[in-house]
């Protein structure tokens, strides 16, 4: 089982390396009054995923959020069929993510995607650092109830993300070129063996649809 897991991640890694596209956005849109910065650390690391509901999103930079840890919590999520990612305050931890610039008109779409109106996530303004030394304020989302800290390897089943969700995160992390050490940490989280709902797989397209056909 363990060997199988490692092999699957290796395949993800190889296919990411071969399909990776570098899309650095040079337009100076930060600070424009019609756009805002969004810090994504979960499924919205993947361009294809964020563009489903937020077509205006443009990749800006990777960034790190200090004094938070990445965690997962059960929110009875039938979309992904597993736990959802969140950030929890913790000194000396960091969460890496992607900064996207979005049109202000996408705020309601992003809020809806994060279930703000139904109390799943809340909006946070966080201060993040980019590798070129800038500190920027960005909008992000946090599950309204902080999950208790457990060792990653002891994550209870109901707090494990689905295979699809984790694969979206890891593929997104490769696409954005998050630090390898952090990607290595991401893949230590156990997954629950489930795929996302079939319409979600369809929205994500290749390779997620093919993986569903194989099972
Ligand atoms: C998830 O559903 C279960 C069973 O319906 C319920 O007891 C639990 O409170 C729900 N959890 C959340 C986070 O909504
Ligand atoms: C985040 O910052 C924006 C812009 O300054 C502000 O309008 C908004 O109320 C802030 N949101 C939160 C949750 O602090």
TrEMBL record:
Enzyme class per UniProt: lyase
Pfam family for this entry, one: AIG2_2
InterPro entries according to UniProt: G-Glutamylcylcotransferase, GGCT-like, GGCT-like_sf
Keyword Coiled coil applies: no
Annotated substrate binding sites: 38-43, 165
EC number: 4.3.2.9
Signal sequence residues: 1-21
Catalytic-site annotation from UniProt: 114 (proton acceptor)
Record key words, sorted: Lyase, Signal
GO terms of molecular function: gamma-glutamylcyclotransferase activity
Protein's name according to its UniProt entry: gamma-glutamylcyclotransferase
Organism expressing this protein natively: Danaus chrysippus (African queen)
